Each structure stands twice: as structure tokens, then as C-alpha cells.
Amino acid sequence: MQHSLMIELFDTNDIVLISFAESLMKSAGILYFVTDQNTSVAEGSLGAIRRRFLVDRESADEARQIMIDAGLEHELAQG
């Protein structure tokens, strides 16, 4: 069984949160990827499709701690 190289840190429709998280991860040198951006735009920004914020599996604990330190623990995916 092969494990994914990236895991979901959170999902949201809040582009400000995504931008802030991107800034935090860039500053820490953590690889990240935001999924479903084009799909979200194509569906007309109705909010039906949430964007998922993925981080490198090896840096997931550090990424979670960065989000907690920034006061965003309530945004984190469970698990």
C-alpha cells in the first residue's frame, strides 16, 4: 500500500485564509498545494466545492503547529 505524499491540513472557501496559510507555509519552507481552485472558480464561487490545502506529509506536524500558533487551530482538519 502506497501512502500519499501530501495530506489535507484544512479545507475552506475562504480565499483570505488560504492566502494567509500559503504565506505561513512559504515562510517555514513547507511544501503545500491548494486543490480544486479551478473547479471552484468554474462553478461560479457558489461555495459548493471547497478548496483543500495540502502539505507535505513529512512536514504535517510542523504545519499544524504553525497554524495553531497563528490562532487557526479551529480550521484544521481532524485526524
Automatic annotation (TrEMBL):
Signal peptide: none annotated. Residues 6-70 form the DUF2007 domain. It holds the Pfam family DUF2007. InterPro entries: DUF2007, N-reg_PII-like_a/b. It comes from the Bacteria. This is Signal transducing protein.
